[in-house]
Amino acid sequence: MNVLRAAIGIFGLALLGLIIWAAVSMTDLHGTFFDQFAVVSTLPWGIVSLVDLYVGFIFFAVIVFLTERSWVVAALWAAPLLILGNVWAAIWLVIRLPHLAKQLSKPDWPTS
Question: Over its length of 112 residues, how does the chain's per-residue pLDDT go in tens digits?
């Protein structure tokens, strides 16, 4: 379990590093984030990729709402997903993975 948590944390940090790199690299050559987003959002595969990304965020938010005990806590975890994305999902998984694994390992139907 600790190896999986560490791997998720490493991938989350790698993604954060990639985001920072993209934010600061060659804006004079390629334009700002908003300039590049405007181009991506006009391409068919750019639109599909963005919709796929946000549908994934919504699916992950459903998992958060199903596992958190309080809907307020769930909302505080789920709402930043739409802005911070999978870096935020990685943080939630690193923190909640042991509890989530315990919940998933319990059968919810009779095994007789």
Answer: 889 999 999 999 999 999 898 888 877 777 888 888 899 999 999 999 999 999 999 999 999 999 999 999 999 999 999 999 999 999 999 999 998 888 888 776 766 6
Can you tell me the distance from the alpha carbon of 84 to that of 65, in angstroms, rounded to the nearest whole number? 17
DSSP structure string for 2-70: HHHHHHHHHHHHHHHHHHHHHHHS-HHHH--HHHHHHHHTTSHHHHHHHHHHHHHHHHHHHHHHHH-S-
